[in-house]
Amino acid sequence: KLGKEEKEWAHYQPFLEEHNYLLRPRYRPGCVSEVTLGSSPLECEEAIPAVGFEVLDATRVSDGAQVVLKVIRTTSTEAEIAAFLRSTPRAEQHTIPFRELLPMYDDPERTFLVMPRMRQCSLSPWFATVREFVEFVQQVLEGLVFLHSNNIAHRDICSMNIVMDSSRMIPGGFHFVNPSTSDGINHLRESTGDDSDPHLIRSRTHAGPIHYCYIDFGLSVRFPSVEARQLVTGYFGRLRKRVPEISATVPYDAFKLDVRLVGEMLRSEFLLHYIGLDFLVPFVKKLRRHNPEQRPEAGEALALFERLVSKMS
């Protein structure tokens, strides 16, 4: 049975199909789940619900590409940033490619933002070598330099908002709601040499190079120029409790905040959980300095990191 928010997806299913996007069978007219026929919900993909009416996976009918649809406000900063990024050359961008902005036919204040389906960077396959992690950090910093050079501050940097192209790691694809499975039911399994296995998952090294990119600009700000930048307020973001300067009342520098958030993410979500990354601790400490003025700019952080890596054997 569809919940209230899922019924909205079912409502827009015909409209989306007219525009080349097909939702999972659960949201199509006349779908009868095998659950109603006596099967266990654990064995039926149609029984897997969406989580709210904001983000859902779909298939592009014309070529079978797996995409994600996100509902955003038509006049939001997120929509403005998406339109800007779509018009900007992709080289060194490290932001998710926005395929289309599709306004709702019956609610012009809301728009479907279409992007390719990618995998959260902290999910399997786990980082297995220092080189894999170095490549990840390099791209995170390059992406930050790109955003800041275009006067965009993300404001919600964390592992959930950095994704990777998993098309070569998981050639059979993964389920959007249950990403540890290929189809919502069967778990992904490490390669055994049989590349025809539909549930195959390869290491990052085997499938590399891996492309990482930023997503979710719902809390972001964009300024017309460096000179026009202003301090901001707002107590939000997934890592907000780790950064004392984030405030609903006391203005702060969103660009310096981004640098701190990268440091917090690297430390709390990776360095504390992987061995062999101690060489990054001094670098991460610089990103996490309590005084924002003592933190490096994004470009300086990238240069510091590249010098550090160049000294490695």
From TrEMBL:
Extract the InterPro entries matched here. Kinase-like_dom_sf, Prot_kinase_dom
Where does the record place the Protein kinase domain?
A: 21-313
What is a single molecular function from GO for this protein?
protein kinase activity
Keyword Transferase assigned: yes
Q: Which UniProt keywords apply?
A: Kinase, Transferase
Keyword Methyltransferase applies: no
> What's the protein here called?
Kinase-like domain-containing protein
